[in-house]
Amino acid sequence: MQASQETDAYRAEMRATGVFVAAGLLWVGTLALARFGPELWGDTRQVATWAAVVANVVAGVLWIVAFTRLLRAVDELQRKIMLDALAITLGAGWVAGFGYVVAERAGLVGDVDVATLLPVFMGVVFVVAFAAGKIRYR
């Protein structure tokens, strides 16, 4: 009986992981379409550009929902590791983002494209924090 429950839980986790990966790929694809599409079809087709942006937002919402379902599907330890990594990522993003704003207003740093660098920074922080959590709870 217990083996059957573990198998069912494993299948649910794998299905949630697959949906999460698919939603993430969909979001990345629509992001690329929204970013590079206007260069392909020209500035005169604003309706197509708006459709690509809306598709990207919808795909992003689906990705968030898929991640929420993934968190519900994983076991307690995996969920704790992910939530700890998310907390560290959120904190690092807030501190780095507002630190940059203050430094820029004080004239300490030059003009940097924070909209590009901040998500990259937060992605790296999440991966490092997640790996550290996996090592910690081995």
Structure description:
The chain has 138 residues and is mainly α. The protein folds into two domains: 74 residues; 64 residues, no CATH class. The chain is 88% helix and 0% strand. The longest helix has 40 residues. The model has no long low-confidence stretch (mean pLDDT 91).
Shape: flat
Task: Report the portion of residues in β strands.
Answer: under 5%
What percent of residues adopt helix (DSSP H or I)? over 70%
- Total domains, how many? 2
DSSP helical segment count:
4
Between the first and last Cα atoms, what is the distance in angstroms? 27 Å
Keywords: Membrane, Transmembrane, Transmembrane helix
Transmembrane segments: 16-36, 48-71, 83-102, 114-133
In a few lines, what is going on in this structure?
The protein is mostly helical and 138 residues long. It has helices spanning 2-41, 46-73, 76-105, 114-136. It contains 4 helices and no strands.
